[in-house]
Amino acid sequence: MNVTIIDPLQGDFPEVIEEYLQHGNMKCIAFNRRGTLLAAGCSDGSCVIWDFETRGIAKELRDKDCVAPITSVCWSKYGHHLLASATDRSLTLWDVKSGEKIARVTLQQTTLLVRLHPGSCTPSICLACPLSSAPILVDLNTSSSTVLPVSVSDSGIGVLPHPRNKFADGSPPYTPTAATFNKNGDLIYVGNSKGEILIVDFKTIRVHAMIPILGGSIVRNIVFSRNGQYLLTNSNDRVIRIYENLLTQKKAAVALEEMSSSFDNLQGTEKLKAVGSKCLILQREFQDAVTKIQWKAPCFSGDGDWVVGASATKGEHKIYIWDRSGYLAKILEGPKEALIDLAWHPVRPLVVSVSITGLVYIWAKDYTENWSAFAPDFKELEENEEYVEREDEFDLVPETDKVKDYEVNEDEEVDVVNFDKDPAFSDSDASMEELCFLTAIPSPDAPEQQDKYVGSSTKVEESTHSGSPLSVDVEQNDQAIILPDLILAEGGNSAAEETVGNNSSKRRRKPSAKGLELQADQVRKPLKKGKSSNKSFKSKNKKNDQDTNGFAPEDDVTDECL
């Protein structure tokens, strides 16, 4: 899209369904870091990688040991690996470029959400959120796991869940629901059923801070923005909350440790809450005050300026888009199919949603192009404005131009070699090669039809070079290729199969009844032309024989010649 002809007054959020992707029954999706590849987990245990530029399938990852539906997919930082969790309690790590399985780990419970460690170039540690137990850190190389603390005792020490999902003091069952890494992966943010956010050190597995959520409802989702400045939580009280992250992006764990040591005069949960107040601050709340609907798959836009959430109501495919200040900008209404997953493109104003039928819908902006030819300094107004004339507006040399001439430094050197980094990818390591695209391998659409045509063309060449009168006469009427091919398609299957057997080892499918009927209809039409040409050829032969021998040839001789 040409940026110069786009109306700048339009918002950078999607508005309409541009197209949809279909391959099996897809359940979950995830973009790579650049947004060039889209991974989708299917109900048959396979993972499909789409080239998002061409909207074609770039690779399909299939494990013969896994036929259960995929629940979550996650890319590594540089796009070389893909991690998938399935309902058979397995975690599978794939090499995207080669399509080979690197590791497979089986847990005790089904994993609903899985995340690879964002700070590792060769990922081996992942964060898994099981169905009915505490989040765990899993080492994919050694298959070892570490359970994260899900609660804090009065003394301020993190408490692991009871083996029967009960606290040690006999309180009701407790189920944490969400966890995520921060941008660099040195801290883990855990949401629990008490309506609390725990900040856990990745290395020591120690709780350093606690942030209570208003209402004390179960935390269903917890998501960071791409730049790491904002945190989103979705609770059972049907409210989406946005927090501002006050910690530094780099070495956040060290800064948190120093902050915790400054509150040594406090003890237990009071100290954790005091530290938590310096880590996160509530900025905005989003909810539907009228319908009080439950939200599903909330997330940020690529630049963090927009917040998107889907309706969890059955049979509805509605997507709500707010700006970060709390203004509801757009409600997208899709087909009458329930929405199960949602993702915003990392760079472009695009939203991809997954319906319960397995289709992936791509929501894009409905651009309004402006082809008006105005001067470069012309400003198009939406409404009338009062214009104030400048004093030097009609001077031969305005004062503003004189000032501009003095500000230009012609001796300054212009750097044309170096370039500024994109702030969205400022943490990229120049030494690491990022995988953005996959090599496409073309495959024939219908190999059985091509094999049939190969056999037919071989037979045609033999008939055209045989020197028979029929081939000569038919060639004059432009039927040298059509007639033998159609006759062979109807009755010469054995010869075609012999030819195909020499050229290809693929098995041919038996033609359907509809295909045989269409072939028979096509044969009848050319045969009528062939009969008329045969009659002319027959009469011509009779005339020649009468002139030479003085008598008409027998019918069986003519038929044998034909």
TrEMBL record:
The entry's localization annotation reads: Nucleus
Coiled-coil spans in chain: none
Per the record, the domain of life is Eukaryota
GO cellular component labels: Set1C/COMPASS complex
Q: Please indicate if the UniProt record lists Nucleus as a keyword.
A: yes
Which ranges are annotated Acidic residues under compositional bias?
Answer: 553-562
- Name assigned to this protein: Protein RBL
State the Pfam families in the record: WD40 (PF00400)
Region described as Disordered: spans on this chain:
442-475, 493-562
SUPFAM superfamilies named among the record's database cross-references: WD40 repeat-like (SSF50978)
Q: Which UniProt keywords apply?
A: Nucleus, Repeat, WD repeat
Q: Which PROSITE patterns match?
A: WD_REPEATS_1, WD_REPEATS_2
Q: Where is the composition biased (Basic residues)?
A: 525-541
Q: Where are the WD repeats?
A: 26-60, 70-104
Q: Which organism is it from?
A: Dendrobium chrysotoxum (Orchid)
